[in-house]
Amino acid sequence: MTKKILLIDDSKTQLLSLKMIISKAGYEVITAPNAIEGIELAYHNMPDLIISDIVMPSINGYQLCRLLKNDPATKHIPIILLTILEGKIDKFWGLKAGADKFFNKESEPEELIKEIELILSKVEDKPQKTPIKNVTFTENAYHVKINEILDQSLIESTIINEFRNLSEFIHDESTLVKEISTIVESILDFDTAAVFFNSADNKKLKKVTFLSNLDEKSLKQMASEFANTVFETTESNDINYEIINLKEAQTQPPYKTKLIMPIKLESEIIGAIGLYSHKEINYQNQKTFEIILNEIKLLMQIKHLHSKTKLLTVIDPLTTLYNRRYYQEVIEREFSRSRRYSFDLSVAMFDIDNFKKLNDTYGHQFGDEVLKTVSQIIIASLRNTDFAFRYGGEEILAVLTNSSSNQAFIPIERIRAKIENYPFNYSGENIKVTISAGISELKKEISTAQNLAKVADDALYEAKHSGKNKVIIAKQ
Question: Strands (DSSP E) along 36-180, which ranges?
Fold first, then answer.
């Protein structure tokens, strides 16, 4: 089928010249002497390609381009803008208006034909769009429509700028969430919204921030449902939430609209947002929502990168255990929490038996592999609420939250057995590696976090000097 091309130019000479060149190349050509007639012909004929001059009276080529590219009925039609303008800003603006190609009028005719062939070759052969014969606008109506498009562009760029300005709060999650909530509340219609930033450190409590005036019971149920949707399954004690109160009272559940969207970077969940309303609202069909979603995604990516960078400062690079500096922060926090709420807390100190001999006999590279493997076995065997640290050299310390020493003994003994039976290999030779461990429990007579670790270390000393390859609970 012969391809149909619409030519728009206010110069009769230019219009006739272009028509002859393009017709000779085998295309059906329709012409219009100005943008207004050109727009109507575009609707009436649904051409395969539009070629338009830029500098025209009343409505220029940029405006024509914006009009057609913003209408679902005509946005599929490729557009070439013709000009003698050479400035980079002219080309930039033409492409931003939606043009598929910015072409110089003074170029050779053969080059224009090549561009036409190239553009039409990229257009998939689809059923011809049905022409819309009843489209007629006055010049004023076109200007009104153009102004509407420009107003929408201004709204979109303003929203984007508002979100981009929030990057200064990446280091302060609480302020960042509050600023996001202020913007979202001023643009979208909802009763309750939720924002969640996931940390690269999976030990951190998952905190969902709700924009709502709901009662605490409703919010707790909503937080659990939100986390279950985002993570598919999660323990209830892994979820925390905070509330940013909205200015006006909101409708109580149940809601007709419930949108929960996990945000992923590759396969990793970096955050999520939720919107709830008593009205039936299709947020995903709203252009404004799409812009907000994209900007929140960008903020979540930046925040997650910052979280990963921060995590690297507390991780031991060889073992991927937490480092000793971070241990000081965690043990003080967990010690205070256990004292305040009368929670159980235990500390286990591990040491690889005869590690110096392993290094001397098989080399430090093998010793490093043993240390890495032991560390991974410990990490895999502890709960998500527990912490493991490289305390120094081959010593590893674990903090077991909400665990008495007897409860802690079970996973620690399991770790000891796994390591004893692990098939360490050096040049085809099976090497037996064992560990010793000491466990201490927070009791009334232990006054500081340092004393808790010291008691575990004393129990480890006893295990080492009573035969090794054993776990001993400190006698307190």
Answer: 49-53, 79-83, 101-104
Residue 145 lies in a domain: no
**CATH code of the domain in which 371 resides:** 3.30.70.270
Same domain, 185 and 261: yes
Residue whose C-alpha is closest to residue 44's, from 124, 137, 113, 106: 137
Q: Where are the beta strands (DSSP E) in 325-470?
A: 345-352, 387-392, 395-401, 424-426, 429-431, 435-441
Q: What is the DSSP letter of 299?
A: H
CB 32 within 8 A of CB 14: no
- Asked if the structure places residue 316 within a domain, the reply is no
The DSSP bridge partners found for residue 104 are: 83
Is-cis flag, bond preceding 47, omega within 30?
no
Neighbouring CB atoms inside 10 A of 322's CB total 24
Number of domains in the chain: 3
272 and 369 together in one domain? no
Distance of CA 347 to the CA centre of its chain: 36
pLDDT digits (tens, 9 = 90+) for 72-81: 888 899 999 9
Domain assignment of residue 240, given as a range: 163-311
Instruction: Give residues with Cβ within 8 angstroms of 190, minimum separation 6.
Output: 211, 275, 276, 277, 281
Over its C-alpha atoms, the chain yields an Rg (Å, rounded) of 34
Whether omega before 254 lies within 30 degrees of 0, making that bond cis, reads yes
- The two three-digit tokens of residue 119, written as one number: 């553009």
Token pair recorded at residue 369: 């592999």
pTM above 0.70, yes or no: no
Active site residue ranges: 394
More confident residue, 462 or 240: 462
